[in-house]
């Protein structure tokens, strides 16, 4: 198992993530709370300590305004780049 992460930082894409990793707080929250995966499963799949999963979840819930801002920024980026994607229904064989 990986070394214990001690902090949540904002060095990557200005989004909170596990120190020394590219795993965001938002990603962990989505995996556990939205997809229903167990914290241990998320930890095992991403080679992190289960404590880091709980740290990320705690950070998410301790900073609701910051996380809403992150979510709005993600939605804005997706919307801004939507014209660059192709709808699978529009692709012909």
Automatic annotation (TrEMBL):
Pfam families recorded: DUF433
Highest taxon listed in the record's lineage: Archaea
InterPro entries, sorted: DUF433, Homeodomain-like_sf, WH-like_DNA-bd_sf
Region (Disordered): 66-93
Name the UniProt record assigns to this protein: DUF433 domain-containing protein
Native source species: Halosegnis rubeus
């Amino acid at each position: 198992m990986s070394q214990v992460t001690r902090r949540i930082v904002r060095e990557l894409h200005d989004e909170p993530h596990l120190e020394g990793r590219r795993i965001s707080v938002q990603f962990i929250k989505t995996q556990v709370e939205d997809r229903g995966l167990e914290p241990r499963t998320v930890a095992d799949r991403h080679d992190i300590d289960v404590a880091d999963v709980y740290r990320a979840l705690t950070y998410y819930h301790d900073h609701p305004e910051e996380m809403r801002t992150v979510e709005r920024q993600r939605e804005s980026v997706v919307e801004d780049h939507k014209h660059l994607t192709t709808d699978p229904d529009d692709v012909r064989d």
